[in-house]
Specification:
The chain is mainly alpha-helical. It has seven helices and two strands. It starts with 8 loop residues before the first strand and ends in a 15-residue tail after the last helix. About 25% of the residues are buried.
Length: about 230
């Protein structure tokens, strides 16, 4: 049993490696790209709306509603960014019930890449809301001596974001595989249903935590007593 899909290498030439993580990542990306193209064709803003469009609007509205609950002044581009992360993680985890498929989210390299995206997005949105000087000055509050601790906090929560998703997905897959080996006649269906539920929950937790971090960066200046720069979003 391979703990990480990174360990299964299909092809390698120097530093270029094609392993199971990359292969299934491409498969999920292709599935999402083709699915998005099919679902967004022939959308209508007037007249009769198809059932496909109703389902699509319901998914987008649900994600947008959850993000607005965390970040009331939802900045431009936040919904596409976190919505894409949510859909990729959720689809990857749900596809784990397909025999032979190993979710890319079971690899620490994949979850680290997602966490780095959030790590970069936090200062980008913070600076866009407050400006460079005001945003960076928050690392000096409440005193200059808190600078290393504030930086360590940013790094540690990024690591926690990556390890939490990797650990939960990896442990879920391992437990399911062990139970299938012990009692293959009784556990397949319950474990598949549990895998579907936990996969979507893990995607939801990752997305909400990312939204909380970005929202906190944009509202940090409010706690200093200064009025943030007003910008029009959406």
């Amino acid at each position: 049993m391979h703990i990480s899909p990174d360990n299964v290498i299909f092809w390698q030439s120097g530093l270029l490696v094609l392993n199971r993580t990359i292969l299934f990542t491409w498969a999920v990306m292709a599935l999402l790209a083709v699915g998005s193209w099919l679902l967004t064709r022939r959308l209508s803003s007037t007249g009769r709306v198809s059932r496909r469009q109703i389902i699509l609007e319901a998914v987008v509205s649900a994600i947008s509603g959850q993000l607005k609950a965390v970040t009331p002044h939802q900045p431009k581009g936040l919904l596409p960014l976190l919505g894409t992360l949510f859909l990729f993680i959720a689809v990857s985890n749900v596809l784990s019930v397909v025999p032979g498929f190993h979710p890319p989210t079971g690899s620490l390299s994949t979850t680290s890449a997602f966490a780095l995206v959030v790590f970069v997005a936090v200062p980008v949105y913070g600076v866009s809301k407050m400006g460079v000087v005001d945003y960076l000055s928050n690392y000096l509050r409440p005193s200059f001596f808190m600078l290393p601790f504030n930086i360590m906090g940013e790094i540690s929560r990024t690591l926690a974001l990556a390890v939490r998703l990797f650990g939960n997905v990896m442990s879920s897959n391992m437990i399911g595989a062990i139970l299938l080996l012990i009692a293959p006649l009784f556990f397949p269906v319950p474990m598949q249903l549990l895998g579907l539920l936990t996969g979507v929950v893990q995607a939801y937790i990752f997305t909400i935590l990312a939204a909380v971090y970005i929202g906190a960066a944009m509202e940090a200046q409010t706690r200093s007593g200064k009025r943030p720069k007003e910008k029009r979003y959406e």
